[in-house]
Amino acid sequence: MGRQLWTASGAALLGLTLLGSGISQAQETTTTPNTTPPAQGDIRKDAQDIRKDRQDIRQDRKELQGDRREIREDRKEIMNDRRKLEGDTKELQKDRQELRQDIRSGASKDEIAKDRHEIRQDERKVHGDRRELRHDRQELRHDRQEAHQDRREGREHRGGGDGRRR
Fold first, then answer.
1. I need a surface site. Which of 19, 68, 103, 165 has the fewest CB within 10 A?
2. Distance CA 152, CA 149 (A)
3. How far is 100 from 150, CA to CA, in rounded Å?
4. Max CA-CA distance within the chain?
């Protein structure tokens, strides 16, 4: 009589062992689950923390809105300064052209002196406009950097990771 040899894998042997010991694989091997509710103080503390976090978020949003408003106003100032500079530059060019025409046509010394005086006034205006525009651009740059830093700190404060978008 021939005997048939059976081979079994490790997983099958483990299953047979567990079945033999009365433990099925679907059963949890731990004791009774922990059903005790958290202490009431913990829930109150968590609720207070959540309220505080929400207040912080609202405050951050208000600050962010203020920063954005300030940046918008700075941009408007820059646009107004640009328009003013363009207008004064055109006025300067016009006065220079007028001086050239007066010199060519042989105008009086008083007329030429008056034209040169107007040119000097226009040059002062253009210089002031450029200085004002440069100042407004620096202010805008500073406001943007400040707003960016505030957002970064807000993300870090609220546990937003390293502050980079994903």
1. 165
2. 5
3. 55
4. 141
Quote the number of domains for the chain.
1
pLDDT digits (tens, 9 = 90+) for 97-138: 999 999 999 989 999 999 999 999 999 999 999 999 999 999
Residue with the two structure tokens 């208000």: 62
The burial class, CB within 10 Å (0-12 / 13-18 / 19+), for 155 is middle
pLDDT tens readout for residues 7-60:
556 556 556 565 565 555 555 555 566 666 666 668 888 999 999 999 999 998
pTM score of the predicted model: 0.54
Beta strands in 3-139 (DSSP E): none
- Within a domain: residue 158? no
Residue 31 three-state SS: coil
| Helical pair 40-105 and 109-157, crossing angle rounded to 10 deg | 170
- 152 within 8 A of 64, measured Cβ to Cβ: no
The domain of 61 spans: 55-152
| Residue for token pair 């525009």 | 133
94 within domain boundaries = yes
